[in-house]
Automatic annotation (TrEMBL), chain A:
It is a multi-pass membrane protein. It is found in: Cell membrane. This is Formate dehydrogenase subunit gamma. Its main location: membrane. It holds the Pfam family Ni_hydr_CYTB. Keywords: Cell membrane, Electron transport, Heme, Iron, Membrane, Metal-binding, Signal, Transmembrane, Transmembrane helix, Transport.
From TrEMBL, chain B:
This is Formate dehydrogenase iron-sulfur subunit. CDD domains: DMSOR_beta_like (cd16371). Pfam families: Fer4_11. Keywords: 4Fe-4S, Electron transport, Iron, Iron-sulfur, Metal-binding, Transport. Its cofactor is [4Fe-4S] cluster. SUPFAM superfamilies: 4Fe-4S ferredoxins. The keyword DNA repair does not apply. It comes from Litchfieldella qijiaojingensis. InterPro entries: 4Fe4S_Fe-S-bd, 4Fe4S_Fe_S_CS, 7Fe_ferredoxin, ET_IronSulfur_Cluster-Binding. PANTHER family: PROTEIN NRFC (PTHR43177), PROTEIN NRFC HOMOLOG (PTHR43177:SF3). Transmembrane segments: none annotated. It comes from the Bacteria. Residues 4-32, 45-77, 78-107 form the 4Fe-4S ferredoxin-type domain.
Length: 348, 206
């Protein structure tokens, strides 16, 4: 009895160790033989359909990680395809239709109706319509508008025509030049547009006779029909307010696109691009009408914006209410030459 | 011709970023640009999963469709490449890309982004000399008969690159057999790899 106790006492620790080793030895093979089928049945799936649905929708949860430096992109940019479809399937074709349609209408109108001549002979007496400051503002904004429109159109449509026409080397310079002009002159256009809008605001506030002007189609067709108009007629006011609304939206969206250094999101730039393109294409189409009416379409209009002075007859016919206000200032043509040194007063 | 594709097996990716490093090393990419990224979903939760993403060389590539300069082209191997001489850095490819692949070296005022850079499937790009090609686009391993280094270096063979059919076959086998029959070390001749092929023997000259 004593001997056994003593023996156990001496060998207890080594025996326990042996038992532990044996049990491990037995358990090892058992673990290794765990059946794959059972493992599959109990395993937590790493990815399931829901995970991929979430990815596809562009969502990122709080436990989303991206190993790229400074990246806030989701795994799948779901809105990218939407942007592509809107731009390529809607904006591009309909922009082209709007602009070419406008051109076609202008050409047809010119061929059928022709230029609007003055109904009465000129008196030779001139009225100051645009000051030097207003003219320089107008021509600066106009030049910038045309440059931005042409470069913008080149960015949207140029590749379909000029790349094959001129070859890659020329096209590379042409398109990168377009982008540079567009991106650097755009903000300048924005600043000048805001100034010119502020300057012309009062004259372009809507008034009652504008409605009559519209109902009579602005007197665009026919001889001797001239609805009432103040300094600005209904059509000019519409162009003003288009620029004051759509124009400002185009500028704002353009700034979003032009300054990626502020870190705006990719989604913000997608929407800004669509808004910018739709607004700019629309304004370009309308601008064609403005250009036609201001140059080829109406006798005596262009000389107003070129020299600052319009003929008395032109003022009487096109802007009768304004003419009534300023007719006492009418001066003979030779007297107006000194305009730059002593600008005459003009009430609007 | 082959249709080159990447495929990342999310069940295998261990988020080691070896592909990212391999790519930067193979292509000597500009500082700040990382052509490949590893995205982890549900980080630290059950169901955590990682996946390596770069340009996926789409069949109907959105970048090509929206590029104002038409600088993208598809090689005979179905690889989407771009001409940096034509790129104006407008960023449209980035807006359209489903995978966030295009990157720009700069992000400055007036849309000054520099020339776009993206994964080339280690196929270089248009250039007049090898040096110029390497400097602009990185390695042209495809011309040397090699696959992209990211996939070649992937330690778990999560990231596969190659002809779409072959990649699909390997992945199908993995799904069916819960692991490739030879652990996807894979000789591609339709037979399981031998033990010799599984362990690289440095003493053996081939």
């Amino acid at each position: 009895m004593n001997l056994l106790t003593e023996w156990l006492h001496t060998w207890r620790v080594p025996l326990l160790a042996l038992l532990v080793l044996l049990s491990l030895g037995m358990a090892g093979p058992v673990l290794a033989q765990a059946d794959p089928e059972g493992e599959i049945a109990t395993a937590v799936p790493a990815t399931d359909a829901d995970t991929w649905r979430q990815v596809r929708s562009g969502e990122t949860g709080p436990n989303y990680r991206d190993s790229r430096f400074d990246s806030n992109y989701n795994l799948i940019n779901a809105s990218g395809e939407t942007w592509r479809q809107i731009r390529n399937r809607w904006v591009s074709p309909f922009g082209l239709i709007a602009i070419c349609g406008m051109l076609a209408m202008i050409v047809l109108f010119y061929l059928i109706v022709g230029r609007k001549h003055l109904d009465e002979p000129r008196t030779g007496r001139k009225l100051l319509r645009w000051t030097a400051l207003e003219r320089s503002l107008h021509w600066s904004v106009a030049t910038l508008f045309i440059i931005l429109a042409l470069t913008g159109l080149n960015l949207l449509y140029g590749k379909f025509l000029f790349k094959t026409l001129f070859g890659d080397a020329f096209w590379a310079g042409m398109i990168s030049g377009s982008k540079m002009l567009h991106n650097y002159l755009g903000p300048l256009f924005g600043v000048l547009l805001v100034i010119i809008l502020a300057k012309f605001l009062v004259r372009n506030l809507p008034s009652k006779h504008d409605w009559t002007w519209f109902k009579q189609g602005g007197g665009l067709i026919g001889k001797g029909r001239h609805p009432d108009a103040g300094f600005a007629n209904g059509g000019e006011k519409v162009w003003y307010w288009l620029l004051a609304t759509a124009g400002l939206v185009v500028i704002a969206s353009g700034l979003v696109l032009d300054f990626p250094n502020y870190g705006q999101s990719r989604d913000a730039m997608q929407w800004a691009n669509i808004v910018h393109a739709v607004g700019a294409l629309g304004l370009t189409a309308v601008a064609l009408g403005h250009i036609y009416i201001g140059t080829l379409g109406t006798e005596g209009s262009l000389e107003g914006m070129a020299t600052g002075y319009v003929d008395e007859t032109w003022a009487k016919e096109h802007h009768n209410l304004w003419y009534e206000e300023v007719k006492h200032q009418a001066a003979d043509a030779d007297e107006t030459l000194g305009e730059e040194s002593t600008p005459p007063q003009r009430s609007s | 011709m082959a249709q080159m594709k990447f495929m990342c097996d999310a069940e295998r990716c261990i988020e080691c970023n070896g592909c990212v490093t391999a790519c930067k090393n193979a292509n000597d990419v500009e500082w700040g640009i990382q052509r490949r990224r590893v995205v982890t979903l549900n980080d630290g939760e059950p169901g955590e999963v990682s996946i390596s993403v770069a340009c996926m060389h789409c069949d109907d590539a959105p970048c090509m469709a929206v590029c104002p300069t038409d600088c993208f082209y598809k090689t005979d191997d179905g690889i989407v490449l771009h001409d940096k001489d034509l790129c104006i850095g407008c960023g449209y490819c980035l807006y359209a890309c489903p995978f966030g692949a295009p990157q720009f070296p700069k992000q400055n005022a007036f849309g000054e982004r520099g020339k776009m850079d993206k994964c080339t499937f280690c196929a270089g790009g248009p250039a007049n000399s090898k040096e110029e090609e390497y400097q602009k686009y990185g390695a042209n391993r495809i011309a040397e008969g090699k696959l992209p280094l990211c996939a070649e270096m992937c330690s778990t063979k999560a990231l596969l690159a190659g002809d779409a059919q072959t990649v699909a076959d390997i992945f199908r086998q993995r799904v069916v057999q819960r692991g490739h029959e030879d652990g996807a070390w894979s000789s591609l001749e339709g037979r399981p790899a031998t033990a010799d092929e599984l362990a690289y023997d440095a003493t053996r000259q081939q």
